[in-house]
Amino acid sequence: MRVPATLPQAVREELRRALHPPYDLPLGILGNGVLLVICWTLLPARAVDALFRFQGPFAFAMVLALWIYSDVPVTNPLCGDAGHSIAALDDPAALRRLLYAKNIAMWLLATPLCVLVAAAIGVTERRPVTFLVTASWIVLVPLGALGAAAWVGIRWPYHPLPLRERWAGRRRWRPMLLRWTVLILAPFLVVPFLTAVLTVPGLLVWWWAGHGGRVTDGQFAAGVLLTAVLAAVAWPAGHRRGARLARRRREQLAAYLADPAQG
Q1: pLDDT number for residue 57
Q2: pLDDT tens-digit profile of 221-250?
Q3: DSSP string for residues in the chain
C-alpha cells in the first residue's frame, strides 16, 4: 500500500474508511458517549464522586470529550490500518502524517458533538462566556494527549480481531485474552492521565486565582489558554517521539502487523 502523499489526502482517506462499514470509529464515539451518560446519570452519587473528580454542567461536556477520545484508535493506531502502517514504518514523516490524519479524523467526528453538548448547557445555564471557554478547551486540549497516547500501541500493538476469533484462540490466553483485555482498557487510563498532566498548570492558575472559591470566567479562560498552549506543543512532540520509537522497532512492528494470528 502507498501512504497518502499529503495530510489532506490522508485525512480524507481516514474519513472515508470511518464512514463506511463496519463504522468502527463512529460507533466507538457513540458508544463511549452513551457509556458516560449512563455512568454520570444512573450510578449512585458515591460512585459518581469516585469516578469523576470534577462535576457540574460544563464539566460534563469536558469529561464527555475525554471519554470519547479514550478509545482504541488513540492508543492502538497502527493495527487498525496495518497495510498503510507497514508502508509508513521506514518513513518517519509518512508515519507522522498517518498518525496526524487518524487524530484529525477522530477530532472532526467527535469534537462537534461535544461542542453541541456544551452549547446546549450554555443555553440552559445562560452562561455564554463559560460555554465559549469550555468549547475552546474541548477543541484544543484533548488533542495534546493523543501524540503520547499512541506510544502504547507502538510498543504494544494488537490486532482488532472479532471476539469469536479471540475466544477460539483462548488456549493462547496470554496474547489473545489477557494482553488484549489490558490494552483495550488502557485508553481509559492513559488519555485522562495525559490530559490531566497538561491541565495541571491551568489547575494551579485556577486554584491561585480562586483561592479555593468560585473561579470567574476570566480566570477559567486564563487556565484554559495556558493548557491549550501546552497541548499545542505536546501534540506534534508526542507524534515525533512516537515515529522515532516506531522506526527503532520497525522490524518487530512489520512482522507483527503482517500477521493477525499473533492476536
Answers
A1: 85
A2: 888 999 999 999 999 999 999 999 999 999
A3: ----SSHHHHHHHHHHHHTSTT-HHHHHHHHHHHHHHHHHHHS-HHHHHHH-SS-SHHHHHHHHHHHHHSSHHHH-TTGGGHHHHHHHTT-HHHHHHHHHHHHHHHHHHHHHHHHHHHHHHHHHHT-HHHHHHHHHHHHHTTHHHHHHHHHHHHHS------HHHHHHTGGGHIIIIIHHHHHHHTHHHHHHHHHHHHHHHHHHHHHHHHTTSPPPHHHHHHHHHHHHHHHHHHHHHHHHHHHHHHHHTHHHHHHHHT-GGG-
